[in-house]
Design a protein that fits this description.
This protein folds into 3 domains: 199 residues, 3-Layer(aba) Sandwich (Rossmann fold), CATH 3.40.50; 82 residues, Helicase, Ruva Protein, domain 3; 71 residues. The protein is 53% helix and 12% strand. The chain contains 15 helices and 11 strands. Strands 2-5-6-1-7 form a 5-stranded parallel beta sheet, with helices on both faces. It has a two-stranded antiparallel ribbon with strand order 3-4. The protein has a two-stranded parallel ribbon with strand order 8-9. Strand 10 and strand 11 form a beta hairpin. It binds adenosine-5'-diphosphate and magnesium ion (MG). The site of adenosine-5'-diphosphate has 23 residues, from helix 2 and helix 10.
Length: 373
């Protein structure tokens, strides 16, 4: 029997649950030429939703291209990634592409070749006419030129778009914005997981991307839907899970599908015939948390501020904590609402908190059991 729960990569098909409304809003907007900012904290399912939407969009004859900015560490790498993925999606033969290259670019003179796996490889060279900025503009304009030529709509998803701020932030944003705004046949998805950066890029009046795209926030999935998903998957794979155990996992996960899949993946292995609460508890305590603990220890040791540590301990130990209340400030020996606010901002910036909560539920659980109060 095959483990029916998957985590650690985007899911599709039978592994994908819910998101009907988001899916139809996303596909309808993109097909009409509306650009989208897709925000949620990590692990909520953005990349999965994008890949799922791509399936529908391709059925509607759009060409879909996925570009992850997480791995691109320079302007040159972004340009290369865009050119490489656009040509691979739109040209099946390197010869044909070779013949058309002249018409597709202004300043770039890419060399094309066939890679071992049959993909078309591109070499950009670093000496484009007009320098790197012009090279990037040229690359960014490629999808629009191809879309016109092929008389089709192209959809481009830039995943983890906030990474642009870690490169050459404002300057890159200006180049992107001033280029993309002329595109009529390409729709863009900008997905991001860091609230403050995404708000800054798309929400601040002075920024180039201000109001460029429609904002969509991916929310938690309802407990009922997740509970049913868990129960169904167990049954279809020849095992079972008690109702209270499935309900507990759904509730613990707070609607974030990643935790459901991760916990269930491990619980499924530990289960002979029927999973119950005992197995779920053992699984968290003896399997999942220990496997993550050394990473969490490293994170913890890097938090130098005592106020920040105390705040995390407070949040992990309290149910729906009102972190600015005098009661909790006294109980956890936090200094003042002002200090709490400062710690919240720092921890948000470090990606450990999202808003007033701890972002990673396993980290929260680890803090709770390690520093019980
Ligand atoms: N709609 C969904 N149905 C079932 N599982 C999902 C769904 N969306 C996400 N997941 C689970 O969550 C994990 C993280 O999803 P991902 O799309 O990578 O999130 P994000 O891009 O927001 O960080 C996936 O590997 C999968 O296990
Ligand atoms: Mg993602």
């Amino acid at each position: 029997m095959k483990n029916p729960f998957i985590f650690g990569r985007a899911v599709a098909g039978e592994h994908f649950v819910d998101r009907e409304e988001e899916l139809s809003e996303l596909t309808a907007s993109l097909l009409s030429g509306q650009h989208i900012v897709l925000f949620s904290p990590r692990k909520m399912g953005k990349t999965s939703l994008i890949k799922r939407a791509f399936g529908e969009l391709e059925d509607a004859d759009a060409l879909c291209i996925y570009i992850d900015l997480w791995q691109t560490t320079s302007t040159h790498a972004i340009a290369k990634e865009i050119v490489g993925s656009v040509v691979n999606k739109t040209y099946t033969s390197a010869e044909k592409l070779g013949r058309e290259l002249k018409d597709l670019f202004r300043s770039l003179r890419p060399k094309v070749y066939i890679e071992m796996d049959g993909q078309i490889g591109v070499e950009l060279g670093r000496e484009a006419v007009g320098g790197m900025e012009e090279a990037l503009r040229d690359a960014l304009d490629l999808p629009e030129r191809v879309a016109k030529r092929k008389e089709t709509r192209i959809i481009i998803a830039f995943d983890e778009f906030q990474e642009i701020t870690h490169l050459n932030g404002l300057q890159l944003e200006k180049i992107f914005r001033s280029t993309l705004q002329h595109h009529e046949n390409v729709s863009y998805i900008f997905a991001g997981s860091e609230r403050s950066l995404i708000n800054m890029i798309f929400g601040e009046k002075e920024r180039p991307f201000y109001r460029f795209a429609k904002q969509m926030e991916l929310n938690p999935i309802s407990d009922d839907v997740l509970e049913r998903f868990i129960t169904d998957k167990f049954i279809r794979s020849g095992k079972e899970i008690d109702r209270d155990a499935a309900a507990w996992i759904a509730e613990f996960s707070g609607g974030v599908p990643y935790y459901v899949q991760h916990i269930c993946h491990e619980v499924w292995y530990m289960t002979g015939r029927t999973a119950d609460m005992g197995i779920v508890e053992r699984c968290l305590k003896e399997q999942i948390l220990p496997s993550l603990s050394s990473g969490f220890q490293t994170i913890w040791s890097r938090i130098r501020s005592r106020e920040q540590r105390k705040l995390l301990i407070c949040i992990a130990n309290e149910d729906q904590p009102r972190i600015y209340s005098q009661k909790l400030i006294e109980k956890y020996e936090l200094k003042s609402p002002g200090h709490v606010g400062k710690a919240v901002r720092a921890l948000n910036g470090a990606g450990l908190m999202d808003g007033n909560g701890i972002e990673d539920l396993f980290f929260e659980e680890w803090v709770r059991v390690t520093f019980s109060f």
